[in-house]
Amino acid sequence: MRQTIDLQQGILYGPVRSRRLGLSLGLNILPDEIKVCSFDCRYCQYSWTGMLAIQPSLYAQFLPDRQTVSRALRRKLAALERDGTPPDVITFSGNGEATLHPEFPAMVEDVVALRDALAPGCRTAILSNSTTVHKPEVREALLRMDDPILKLDAGREETVRRLNGPARGVEFAAMVKGLRAMGRAATLQALFVEGAVDNSAGEEVDAWLEIVHSIGPRKVQIYTLDRGPADKGLLPVPLERLRSIAEEVRRRAQVEAEVY
Question: Are 109 and 100 in contact (CB under 8 A)?
Fold first, then answer.
């Protein structure tokens, strides 16, 4: 595995080739200098979370505003269109959890409008950790996107706490309730690991499958470590085990599953 990577610099990065999304223009609406997230995942490719919080008052001063983000995206999409290299997708991603930005719903409106005007063949997506999906305003914004990809790594609260390290105020039951409200509009993503924490064992997968079935997502994306994790005690899960989990999703949860 490669080492952890540096934080993204600036509001936009790429386009980069994504295993799941194609040619993706990354949209980072979080700070350059510190990772702001409501999870402190042991496997994170950006290493440990610098500011673990779910309350915007703790980090709002570090965030770019709506107008700045909109201007940057307008310029970038116009330039890519002139060059004849439009991306396949505009993806909210970057240095932490994008939905924590207090202007996130308004930014989604702007992104969709700019996409429609400047890159109509492009999809919109987000890679989210699901910690705010219980909020109606966040869920409404997610539903405006073509590909809301939402995390669910485990079906037991204890495992989520050990693997994902949620901030104070994050409630597992609220996450699951929000994901159930998304239903088929959502794609679930799950990263499986072994070692210091193991969410790929039988009982762990059984609990996870029960929740996946209750959510009834569009599909499930299954993967393991690619880059170096924050916790060096984690190990990737063998490909055959990932394929076995995917088959269980198809058989028991009756949902399409892909291994990446």
Answer: no
Nearest alpha-carbon partner for 97 in 141, 43, 151, 18: 151
Look at the chain and count its residues. 260
Which pLDDT belongs to residue 97? 96
Give the type of residue at 75: R
Query: What six digits make up the tokens of 246?
Result: 């995917």
pTM: 0.94
Distance CA 103, CA 106 (A): 5
Are residues 23 and 15 in contact, defined by beta-carbon separation less than 8 angstroms?
Answer: yes
- pLDDT tens-digit series, residues 168-222: 999 999 999 999 999 999 999 999 999 999 999 999 999 999 999 999 999 999 9
Closest CA relative to residue 41, chosen from 51, 49, 29: 49
Domains along the chain with CATH numbers: 12-184 (3.20.20.70)
Sign of CA dihedral 201, 206, 209, 214: negative
Hey, which residues does 223 pair with through a beta bridge?
191
Q: What is the residue-wise DSSP string for 40-78?
A: --TT-TT-S-SEE-S-GGGTGGGSPPHHHHHHHHHHHHH
What single DSSP character describes residue 189?
E
- Which tokens is 256 given? 């399409």
pLDDT tens for each residue of 90-118: 999 988 999 999 999 999 999 999 999 99
C-alpha–C-alpha distance, residues 219 and 9, integer Å: 31
